[in-house]
């Protein structure tokens, strides 16, 4: 897959997703990643399209008056939540490359009368439209995995450029614990769904370090990625949704567990069927997301990092905790 093809597919996919109108779905997904009912009630439901894969705000320690940049802001979900935290004296800038997402976030901004948030059209590999050194904090939720591998390093350099000295970074993203199988890597549906483009944890660490970040903290949140495929539009659970083992018995046998242990089905009488050998290419777009990227144990990693400045490390480390 070349970079242009990836960008085209990612744009097309998120343009379609921007038209989604199922707030209950978004709410169920967000709550599964730790957002509270109260937080969600503080923003327009339309901003939450159920695209998050963690909760960067939970580790961002955002204070009143701060400037926050949200990379890949989508319909403005975390940007609007952050705008509630920074208050009228602070500012939030959401960055997205997708015009339809930007149209949606700007519409919500106008409808809700928010004056401390703005949305900027830009790729996150080159945000020249934003001045250097203005942000206290950068957040991002399930976006960096969508950037073509060869360009990811640019994203981290840009984040470092945009942060004030001593600024901090709080990211939720999906990453792989081990190399992904080629069939999965080249699966475009899984790529735009934030799985196939996942970097391995050591690569992510290196991107951060090479860009100049220090005090890097990686947390396994052990979230269940199957929430996306197991949730109905009305937010209820697909009780009879069956998740077959993705890569066949040999691949899914771990620690002596049989592959059938990895099946998830709400109705046990159907479990036997769905757990029968499922090793087809088709299953790659429907199966157990946790198994494929070995994220059931690793789950979603959250990272916090600080822009390193001599003498400020301890203070910043404390704030991050
Ligand atoms: C999975 S969605 C997450 C949206 C939002 N962070 C949320 O949690 O609701 C990914 C978003 O990142 C945007 N995006 C993907 N790649 C991007 C890039 N290279 N530059 C800017 N935006 C990008 C997409 O347009 C989409 O809005």
Automatic annotation (TrEMBL):
Annotated ranges, domain Methyltransferase: 64-212
Record-linked InterPro entries: Arsenite_MeTrfase-like (IPR026669), Methyltranfer_dom (IPR025714), SAM-dependent_MTases_sf (IPR029063)
Any matching Pfam family: Methyltransf_31
EC category: transferase
UniProt key word Calcium: no
Single GO term (MF): arsenite methyltransferase activity
Keyword Transferase: yes
Enzyme Commission number, as recorded: 2.1.1.137
SUPFAM superfamilies for this protein: S-adenosyl-L-methionine-dependent methyltransferases
UniProt cross-references to Gene3D superfamilies, sorted A to Z: Vaccinia Virus protein VP39
Reaction catalysed by this enzyme: arsenic triglutathione + 2 [thioredoxin]-dithiol + 2 S-adenosyl-L-methionine + H2O = dimethylarsinous acid + 2 [thioredoxin]-disulfide + 3 glutathione + 2 S-adenosyl-L-homocysteine + 2 H(+); arsenic triglutathione + 3 [thioredoxin]-dithiol + 3 S-adenosyl-L-methionine = trimethylarsine + 3 [thioredoxin]-disulfide + 3 glutathione + 3 S-adenosyl-L-homocysteine + 3 H(+); arsenic triglutathione + [thioredoxin]-dithiol + S-adenosyl-L-methionine + 2 H2O = methylarsonous acid + [thioredoxin]-disulfide + 3 glutathione + S-adenosyl-L-homocysteine + H(+)
UniProt keyword list: S-adenosyl-L-methionine, Transferase
Family that this chain belongs to: Belongs to the methyltransferase superfamily. Arsenite methyltransferase family.
Name of the protein described by the UniProt record: Arsenite methyltransferase
Organism field: Cylindrodendrum hubeiense
Source organism phylogeny: Eukaryota, Fungi, Dikarya, Ascomycota, Pezizomycotina
